[in-house]
Specification:
About 60% of the residues lie in helices and about 5% in strands. The protein is mainly α.
């Protein structure tokens, strides 16, 4: 993390704000990645865990800013340490809730169930592929300019092509991932999830265009078509900033898995609770491992993200391919796209 002091302090503040907002955006029945019955979301241990977590977030931010101001450690080290500390705080909060949940038997006497919505298969949320058009056009424009300039460095164009290669399969995989349906309100939660999924897929395709727009400006600077100045660089990164802000706004409005969205129509709650599946989740709801679940991609318990089911054999094939690519790139066997100098 290099740059002026104000930028380092701003990154610390942003990191603290991101971690502090996570519990507020999480589904009420998944505080700190722990599954709890809907009638238990106001338990004292959950409220206490949130207060302690928020105090830890504030104390960590103050300490990190103090260390940066007195210049005792490199800002990069401070930021990494802050992320590790905040992650540990979330894990400890989840463990305290899980311990009380087990000791008091919160799920004793409840009727647990798992609900699905077959309409998401018969009438799936279809990606708006037209939104990928700007990313394709920007790649073509960048390549044409590069050929006109007679450059031999097409690393930025390769980066754009990589975006075009990766985004469509990722979009399809997310659209077909196991939906997040609440057994207590199956119809309402399915409606919210459908709207949430539509927003995620659209933002993903739009973000591809934003990345390729930034890469176009980087290409023009790299090939000396335009002068590399502060204003030019700022303009070049504005599309990425716009995409970043759009994701933040959407996450705040929708919440994790769309639970903050308004459902279409009213639905009384059923007598069922969502099945307690904590045994399949690890690392505070970040890692999922269930050999009996045929789903390859599942929504994480924290944030607007999906993760691989490590109990699925294909998940290990994907991870192995990524690992082999990383090792080959480290030894120089595979050259990954990079900005030239």
């Amino acid at each position: 993390m290099t740059g002026p002091l104000w930028l380092n302090l701003a990154l610390i503040a942003f990191t603290a704000a991101a971690f502090a907002s996570a519990p507020a955006l999480a589904r009420p029945t998944l505080p700190f990645g722990v599954r709890v019955p809907a009638r238990r979301t106001g338990e004292a241990v959950i409220l206490l865990a949130r207060r302690r977590y928020n105090r830890g977030i504030a104390a960590g931010a103050v300490a990190a800013c103090a260390v940066v101001l007195i210049d005792r450690l490199a800002p990069e080290v401070v930021l990494v340490g802050l992320v590790v500390m905040y992650s540990a705080l979330g894990g400890l909060a989840g463990r305290s809730i899980a311990a009380v949940k087990r000791a008091e038997g919160w799920y004793a006497g409840t009727r647990q169930a798992v609900t699905t919505d077959t309409s998401l298969r018969s009438d799936p949320v279809r990606p708006q592929w037209i939104l990928l058009t700007p990313a394709v056009l920007l790649t073509v424009v960048t390549a044409v300019i590069g050929m006109a300039e007679g450059t031999a460095d097409f690393s930025t164009v390769l980066t754009q092509l990589l975006v075009l290669v990766l985004i469509p399969p990722l979009t399809i995989a997310i659209s077909r991932a196991r939906p997040e349906i609440d057994a207590a309100q199956p119809s309402a939660s399915a409606s919210r999830y459908r709207e949430y999924l539509h927003g995620v897929l659209s933002l993903l395709l739009i973000s591809a265009g934003c990345v390729n727009a930034t890469m176009l400006v980087v290409s023009l600077q790299l090939w000396e078509v335009v002068e590399t100045t502060g204003p030019t660089t700022i303009v070049g990164y504005l599309p990425l900033l716009a995409a970043f802000i759009a994701w933040i706004v959407f996450s705040v409005r929708a919440g994790d898995a769309g639970h903050r969205l308004s459902p279409s129509g009213d639905e009384p709650e059923t007598r069922y609770e969502q099945r307690d599946d904590d045994r399949h989740w690890h690392a505070a709801g970040m890692v999922y491992l269930n050999r009996n679940d045929p789903a390859l991609l599942v929504h994480r318990r924290v944030g607007t993200y999906w993760t691989l089911n490590l109990g699925h054999p294909i998940a290990w094939v994907v991870l192995a391919a990524v690992g082999v690519t990383g090792v080959l790139a480290g030894f120089g066997v595979v050259t990954l796209p990079a900005k030239g100098v």
